[in-house]
Design brief:
With about 600 residues, the chain is mainly alpha-helical. The strands form 2 sheets. Strands 4-3-5-6-7 form a 5-stranded parallel beta sheet, with helices on both faces. Strands 1-2 form a two-stranded antiparallel sheet.
């Protein structure tokens, strides 16, 4: 017998299985041996080190085995119980299927599960190709329908769900290929979350929340007793200063609880449930516990950051959370922990920031240099850099976080949003699920910035908070060379004609006088020059004619470009303009209406 860690020997054995896939007596013992060997972590390390993931790739040994199991076992399992062929024959078939499941499916599922438990595996895309994922999900329903007679149902269900869960937790990108195949099986997983052991219910619940879209998962947690159990477990952990806690005869570490909460809190409905169950209080008491390690503190803050989008709407909870975080910040100098604390505080401070923005004189806002801000997720960075290059080549001042970042990254981002005349939101599934991207996009929205969706992912339709933010706005496609070439002229012309951009373009032209789309070969006309003092005089006379003469003193210092800016603000951000006129300029209801009507009727070109 070859040495246990001889990976070449194992690779040869596994590859030989494909040639004899019809011969169960040949390959079943090999898979059993692999299952036994894989229980040794050192074997798995050697196997990964030798880069033998080819046995998991498309048309691989594992895929061939799963395909054979689908034809020879699962098809038969789907038929059992559908036809009344007599109790004796039905029991015979069930016994035979149980034997096949035990011989063929369990070793393969267990081996995959063991490999996904390792942080050193890393290459989950090789370990779980889309065909293997599809098989695992498609087996859930026939297994569930016939679970009453399955002898090893816990190993079957637990193995399938654990493979999905481990893969998602270790490589967040895995959620996207798995999600594509999840929709037809959501009801099965939901039923499993109600009928099985606590461990499997939590796995099923978490998979549902991670792998379904916003609309489908919004109603899945509102009656879940398991979330209450998890919250109680977290409270117990706080009381024991970060110790382990026992739930349904299983021991959970604090880090395991936090991982579950971080994942299920991606759902906005779940956020509300968690806050109602006082999770914030527990998290704030966790942070200063000295026995917590660095990873546990980071997980706690990541969870607080996800919850902060809901916390900020809760009266009283915002100030309580900020005070606790301020106290904690004094005790640490860890850069990542400090940054996460600042992100939470930034989100909770948005009301204050918005109030300061409203109170800034309109003239000061106009005189500040303006730019286009590109808001993106790192998964879309190559496309976002292409977008930046196209805009700068057309003379459009552009801000992106790959440059112009100060020592305080959060303050730099906030200032960049505040000084943007337009925010390009690079829409993708990863963007929607990033807390940092959500913070940036919502801050732009709350400041009434002109937000333009740039589609970075083919056939993706934003839902949830991102769907609300994008609304019915015009989308620009930007996910391949063809769509970039098509969208660039329209996008560049839109930004060049943007009334808020005119002063910025004039300032930029000192260094870059040519306003042609250099890097994308798109020719665009320069914006019109806005200068006729007659238009300003006519507008001021209109104010007098409509009993608004007292406003001439307030707006007399505005030049024609600033009046054009006001007119465009009335069109794009009427709520913001109304608030500004009411709070800063002391205008009453009828005066604001009359003023806005005059703005609409005026021609400043």
């Amino acid at each position: 017998m070859k040495p246990k860690f001889d990976t070449k020997f194992w690779a040869h054995r596994l590859n030989s299985v494909k040639a004899k896939i019809q011969d169960e007596e040949f390959w079943v013992p090999i898979m059993r041996d692999l299952e036994t060997a894989s229980r040794d972590v050192q074997f798995r390390k050697e196997f990964v080190k030798a880069n033998n993931f080819d046995v998991f790739q498309e048309h691989s040994t594992v895929q061939e085995i799963f395909s054979y199991v689908e034809k020879s076992v699962m098809g038969e399992l789907r038929m059992i119980g559908q036809f009344n062929k007599g109790l004796k024959k039905e029991l015979f078939e069930k016994t035979r299927v149980n034997v096949k499941l035990s011989k063929m499916v369990i070793p393969s599922i267990t081996t995959l599960w063991l490999f996904t438990t390792d942080t050193f595996t890393m290459n989950y895309k090789a370990l779980l190709n889309e065909h293997v994922i599809e098989y695992i999900l498609s087996w859930l329903n026939p297994l569930y329908v016939n679970e009453a007679f399955l002898q090893e149902k816990d190993r079957l269900f637990g193995g399938c769900l654990s493979i999905l869960w481990n893969s998602i937790c270790s490589d967040s990108d895995m959620k996207y290929p798995i999600r594509k195949h999840m929709a037809p099986h959501i009801e099965t997983v939901k039923c499993m979350s109600e009928d099985f052991s606590f461990d499997q219910r939590i796995l099923a619940l978490t998979c549902i929340l991670l792998l379904t879209d916003h609309e489908r998962k919004s109603d899945l947690t509102t009656t879940s007793a398991d979330i209450n159990i998890l919250i109680k477990a977290l409270h117990e952990t706080v009381e024991s200063k970060g110790g382990d806690v026992v739930i349904s005869n299983a021991t959970y570490k604090l880090s395991e609880l936090l991982i579950i909460f971080v994942n299920i809190s991606e759902n906005d409905t779940t956020k509300d449930i968690l806050i109602d169950l006082h999770i914030v209080d527990s998290l704030l008491h966790l942070l200063p516990i000295t026995s917590l390690d660095r990873d546990q503190r980071i997980q706690t803050l990541q969870l607080l950051h996800k919850l902060s989008f809901k916390i900020k709407t809760r009266s009283g909870l915002t100030d309580f959370t900020k005070r606790a975080l301020d106290d904690f910040l004094i005790t640490t100098n860890d850069f990542e922990i400090v940054e996460l604390c600042k992100r939470v505080i930034f989100e909770l401070d948005q009301k204050k920031r918005l109030k300061e923005s409203v109170n800034t004189p309109l003239e000061d806002k106009y005189r500040k240099p303006k730019h286009v801000l590109i808001s993106y997720n790192w998964g879309s960075q190559p496309l976002a850099l292409k977008l930046k290059s196209c805009l700068k080549g057309s003379g459009i001042p552009t801000w992106m976080d790959v440059e112009n970042m100060g020592a305080d990254t959060l303050a730099s981002m906030a200032e960049a949003v505040e000084n943007a005349f337009c925010v390009l939101v690079c829409v993708s599934e990863k963007y929607k699920e990033s807390s940092a991207c959500r913070s940036e996009a919502e801050y732009s929205y709350n400041l009434h910035k002109d937000t333009v969706p740039i589609m970075m992912e083919k056939a993706y339709s934003p839902t949830g908070w991102l769907g609300i933010l994008c609304g019915t706005k015009k989308y620009y496609q930007w996910f391949n060379e063809t769509t970039i070439a098509t969208s660039t002229p329209a996008l560049v012309n839109y930004l060049l004609a943007h009334p808020h951009a005119h002063r910025s373009l004039k300032e930029e032209s000192v260094e870059e006088p040519a306003l042609e789309a250099k890097s994308c070969s798109v020719t665009s006309a320069t914006p019109k020059q806005l200068s006729t003092t007659d238009s300003k005089e006519i507008f001021m006379n209109k104010l007098t004619q409509h009993s608004l003469g007292k406003l001439k003193d307030k707006f007399g210092t505005f030049d024609i470009d600033m009046l054009k800016y006001l007119q465009e603000m009335e069109r794009r951000s009427p709520d913001f303009l109304w608030t500004t006129l009411e709070t800063q300029y002391g205008m009453h209801f009828q005066e604001i209406i009359q003023f806005c009507v005059l703005l609409k009727q005026s021609n400043f070109d």
